[in-house]
Amino acid sequence: MLRDRIAAGFAALCGQNGVIVASEAAMAAAVSAYRSKGDFADLLHFALATELGADSFVTFDRSLIRPTEDGAALETL
User: Fold this and answer.
1) In sequence order, what are the residues at sequence separation of 6 or more whose Cβ sits closer than 8 angstroms to the Cβ of residue 31?
2) Interval 23-52 mean pLDDT
3) Is 70 exposed, middle or buried (0-12, 13-18, 19+ CB in 10 A)?
4) pLDDT above 80 for 17
5) Of 14, 16, 41, 55, which has the maximum CB count within 10 A?
6) Which long-range contacts (CB under 8 A, 24 or more apart) does 51-56 make?
């Protein structure tokens, strides 16, 4: 499946020397969720907001797919 190959590529990239990400946990959550659905950048932003304890995540993107039931409330403008 193409999503699995792309997710594996993100994971491999993050494992390279010199690659620094804002949050390894958020990156892992986004990669995991991406395997089954959603846009990677959206999933990463949502994972970071959730990790930082955001009460809500507001977006203009009506097609954003919520990665899980846990985490910040999702409001679409």
Assistant:
1) 7, 10, 11, 40
2) 89
3) exposed
4) yes
5) 14
6) 51/23, 51/25, 51/26
Give the residue among 58, 50, 53 at the shortest CA–CA distance from 76.
Answer: 58
Task: Tell me which H or E stretch contains 34.
Answer: helix 24-34
Q: What DSSP line would sit under 3-18, residue for residue?
A: HHHHHHHHHHHHTSTT
For the cut 70, the answer to whether the pLDDT of residue 68 exceeds it is: no
- What is the pLDDT of the chain when averaged over all its residues? 84
pLDDT for 70 equals 63
Cβ contact 72:55 at 8 Å: yes
pTM of the model as a whole? 0.77
Give 50's contacts (C-beta < 8 A, 6+ positions apart). Answer: 26, 29, 57, 70, 71, 72
